[in-house]
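Structure request: HAD hydrolase-like protein, Streptomyces violaceus.
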Amino acid sequence: MGMKTGAHIVWDWNGTLFHDIDAIIGATNAAFAELGLESLTLEKYRELYCVPVPKFYERLMGRLPTEAEWEAMDEIFHRYYAEHRVTCGLTVGAVELLSGWRSAGRSQSILSMYVHDELVPLVRGFGIEPHFIRVDGRTGPSGGSKAEHMVRHLASLTGVEPERTVVIGDAADDAVAALHVGARAVLYTGGSHSRASLEGVGVPVVDTLEDAVAEAERLAA
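Returned structure:
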């Protein structure tokens, strides 16, 4: 065991530890087809994607979806995603990085906006659950920001200080949530967002999880 550094990583799940971008694009395009919208390429998706998701739809439709449209699209998205996520795996290098961070005596957790009751068995199924001191998914309605969830998540972790905490995610919202609680953030380009949109946030942007962890180590030192 290395020295305890007190450094903690809060990992995002979708698009970060879990490489599910293909399932997400397919699900998005299935939802769009329902409203007669054109399908998106990966590049176009990354360029336009933003949270809250209704705002993303607004960019494509020129208006916000109605409540009925939003519910229909949300339902199709989740049904398609649930069918296709079974073909998705962990991001390259994730397993080694998680066990390395843990064996160095540091802590890590997952905070995801993915439904909690579906997230936990998924993490367990990959055999990586023991690496985390806590795994939190979303318990309320979808579509909001991660910031309030981050407040609750950190409050529930014993001995973890926000200033020694680094959030690793693939979305600008991950950085917003980190800054909201006084933590740091590193953004990864393998998920939903383009490098250009992530670089506008003002935190380190990396292309591999290995670089993300190295950056986290530096920031938490």
